[in-house]
Amino acid sequence: MQRTLALVKPDAYAAGHHGAIAAKIQESGLVIVALKSLHLTRTQAEGFYHVHKARPFFGDLCKFMSEGKILAMVLEGNEAIARWRALMGPTDATKAPKDTIRGMFGTNVERNATHGSDAPETATFEIGFFFSGLDLA
After folding, report:
1. Which of 17, 39, 52, 115 is catalytic?
2. CB within 8 Å of 33: residues ≥ 6 apart
3. Annotation says 50 is catalytic
4. Domain count, the chain
5. 62-79 pLDDT, tens per residue?
């Protein structure tokens, strides 16, 4: 079993799509083992996305991620990282197939509805950022 972090970003949350996205996750066979709704501060968003600090989109990304509520989830299943990334679709929602989450609920490369860990090491950091060990027991 593998775990990964899934986020419903502020655009999809504000549009009321967080329930539909959680349902799509469950329909895919991935198990939601932890879930919480929260509103990141700018500082928290900067801490979460620290690996992108030198990238030109860092400021806009942190502003976007702190503009409204998000839904943070820990997903579990065989090959959970790859399965969640496939279910999300490409980062640029305009290029995402219509049957993917980003294709259904995203708008563009930034407002793309969801986030997912890209590797086991990333998943460990990202899950720990949002959830304590007690949340995952």
Report:
1. 115
2. 3, 74, 75, 76, 136
3. no
4. 1
5. 999 999 999 999 999 999
